[in-house]
Amino acid sequence: MWLEAGSYGKHGGCLPAARLSPFPACPSSPSYEGLRPVSSAIFNFQSLLTVILLLICTCAYIRSLAPSLLDKNKTGLLGIFWKCARIGERKSPYVAVCCIVMAFSILFAQ
Fold first, then answer.
1. How many alpha carbons fall within 13 Å on the CB side of residue 103?
2. Transmembrane ranges (predicted)?
3. What tens digit of pLDDT does each residue of 16-26 get?
4. C-alpha dihedral sign at 62, 64, 69, 73
């Protein structure tokens, strides 16, 4: 955030324009138009669906490479990954369609 001239230090918190510096001089009024606040994927439904789809696809891929890695943890907190892999294996046509729809909505709807 830029500081107003005269509010901080010798140059008001900004670098003088005459000095050669990689930093830009202070703008008179900062514009924050078009900037969105950063939020968690939990509060954005589309981001939450994207994270769940990526988790399902990643777990199914890992289980196809090393089945014993996920099969030994079928219960508990790590059992979530085994369940996601199972969903990815059994419902793979539906998961693939969801991934394609999600890709188009991210690329063209935003």
1. 7
2. 41-62, 92-109
3. 555 555 555 55
4. positive
* H or E element at residue 98: helix 92-108
d(CA 45, CA 98): 14
Cβ(29)–Cβ(1) below 8 Å: no
Nearest to 82, CA basis, from 106, 58, 100: 58
Distance of CA 36 to the CA centre of its chain: 13
The phi, psi pair for 5, rounded to 5°, reads: -65, 135
Higher pLDDT, 74 or 29: 74
Residue 16's pLDDT is 52
